[in-house]
Amino acid sequence: MACEGGGSNVRSSYYTILGIRKDASVSDIRTAYRKLAMKWHPDRYARNPGVAGEAKRRFQQIQEAYSVLNDENKRSMYDVGLYDPHEDDDDDFCDFMQEMISMMNNVKDALKKDLLNNV
C-alpha cells in the first residue's frame, strides 16, 4: 500500500525523529520541533562542510516529521499507517481513508454519549 506511515521500516518514525511519544500533545510536538530545528539548522554548520550535509538531512527529516505530526488529519493517517508523503499516487485513497476515520470517530463519540445517557 502506498500510504504507509507509522510502521515503515525504510526510515525512522516521525515520533522518533522528534524524540516524542505517540501520545504527545500539539504543544509537545511544537516544542520538540523548535528545539531540534535550532540544533540542526544548516546555517549553523555552514562553516563546517563535513557536518553541513548531515545537518541538512536531519533538518529536512525534522521538518517533514513536524509537517505531518502537527496536522491533525495527516497525523491520524500516519498513526494508522496510511500516510506516505513521498507518494502522490494514492491521494484519493488517502482522502477516502481520512473520511472513513473521521466517520468512525464520530460514531465512537455518539456511542460514548449513548452509553453515558443510559447509565
From TrEMBL:
J domain mapped to chain residues: 13-82
GO terms, biological process: response to cyclopentenone
Entry-linked Pfam families: DnaJ
Coiled coil regions in record: none
InterPro entries linked to this entry: DnaJ_domain, DnaJ_domain_CS, J_dom_sf
Record SUPFAM superfamilies: Chaperone J-domain
Record's protein name: Chaperone DnaJ-domain superfamily protein
Gene source species: Arabidopsis thaliana (Mouse-ear cress)
Gene: DJC53
